[in-house]
Amino acid sequence: MTDGPADQHRRAKAEQKHTWKDYLYGLFNFPQRMRNIANDIDYLIMRQENLHRVTKIEHDYVRGQVDRIWREVRDITALRHTLKQSGYDIAREIASRGNNTPVPPDADPNLSLACKPATQADVESDWFYYWMDQLRLAPLAHRKLWEMAYILQSLYSHGKISPGANALGFGCGEEPLPSLFAARGMDVTVTDLHPDRVAELGWVESGQHTVSLMATFVPDLVDENTFRDRVSLQYVDMNDIPASLDETYDVCWSVCALEHLGSIEKGLDFIENSLRSLKPGGVAVHTTEFNYSNQERTLDNWLTVLFRQPDFQKIADRLTEQGHTVAPLDFDVGDQPMDRFIDVPPYTDISTHLKMSVDGFPSTCFGITVTKAAHQ
Fold first, then answer.
1. Boundaries of every domain in the chain
2. CATH class of 76-171+238-371
3. Residue 238 to residues 72, 100, 115, 235, 291: CA-CA distances in angstroms?
4. Could you identify which of 189, 228, 261, 347 might form a hypothetical disulfide with 351, taking C-beta atoms 3.0 to 4.6 angstroms apart as the criterion?
5. By three-state DSSP, how is residue 236 classified?
6. What is the pLDDT of residues 353-368, one digit of tens each?
7. Triad 28, 31, 33: Cα angle to 5°
8. Which residues, other chains included, contact 191 with Cβ-Cβ below 8 Å and sequence gap of 6+?
9. Roughly how many angstroms between the first and final C-alpha of the chain, as a whole number?
10. Are 191 and 235 in contact (CB under 8 A)?
11. What 3-state DSSP class applies to 323?
């Protein structure tokens, strides 16, 4: 079969390209080194042409992928807003249908709380509404309100909220519990980190630090004279509790503070060490962050850490071996609407939630109640 005109033309051009190079080599008697350089130049030109084609293909591919990703994420802001508002609407509905006539917590014989996470059932309970009423706070389905109610109910059920009792609060910030305890005739020591060490943690502006004693004074709960008579302020590092506080108090507590001590292990050590401040038979109640969705991966060795089920089991076993009594462990996070609503950033003053995302980990608050051994 003979070549067609197009084939003959391509062959002629190839032969021509080969011929001019050979002609130059012969005309100028190029040494082999120069011929190698010429070949390298041809190779580089070919690579450049190929790179241009590949780059164009990659550009088209990347642009296609970006367009696809944008179609997937462009509505995330709207979806986040819808999710958050739906959760807040549920929380407001729960609060609006609550018990308008709070009952004393001892009206229910089954009010001794386990070590447990915050749930919708809790914020719909009589004991939650009772303590919100005592604190003069709206009974919203909010994790921070649950923490205070949990501490109060746990101490109350152990008979520790009574005139003359001595109470020690760790990392108190601006919480109202010292005022309520003072109004009930208790003597209270409020503690927090020394101001010299607070600025680096950014707690001054956040209201998470007790700048002065009066930061915990709530005039709706107690008169100022009673507060000043019964409440004192002492600066204490929760990682280094001074021995001067040992076996002095009937009660100690902390509200979501021990997750800021630097690591999970330091938080667990604090729970154990806080018992030193109690008299035999005294009660410690602490709340902290609970990563309930993952028993392996979590946040540790950071400004805020997230405790997991094995971490709580570890400290419970350790304290039990020492003779202390730990309330039963209950890790059921609930199955009602507010239990399934996981709020996402940004969080504002109107955020109302029991569960939230902390660096991608669904989390909630967890309460721990420990009674110190009578004799050690």
1. 12-71, 76-171+238-371
2. alpha beta
3. 46, 39, 21, 10, 22
4. 347
5. coil
6. 999 999 999 999 999 9
7. 135
8. 168, 169, 170, 171, 172, 210, 233, 234, 235, 236
9. 107
10. yes
11. coil
pTM: 0.79
Type of residue found at 201: L
The candidate with the shortest Cα–Cα distance to 286, out of 311, 294, 162, is 311
Residues 263, 268, 274, 276: is their CA dihedral positive or negative? negative
- In the block, which residue shows the tokens 């001067």? 244
The encoded tokens of residue 59 equal 């550009």
Confidence (pLDDT) at 363: 97
**186-229 pLDDT, tens per residue?**
999 999 988 776 556 555 444 454 568 898 999 999 999 999 99
pLDDT value at residue 94: 80
The structure tokens 């019964």 sit at 230
Tell me how far apart the alpha carbons of residues 277 and 168 are, in angstroms, rounded to a whole number: 8
Q: What pLDDT score does 23 carry?
A: 47
Q: How many CB atoms lie within 10 A of CB 294?
A: 14
Is residue 95 within 8 A of residue 140, CB to CB? The reply is yes
Query: Hey, is 247 helix, strand or coil?
Result: coil
In this structure, what token pair is assigned to residue 287? 């709340």
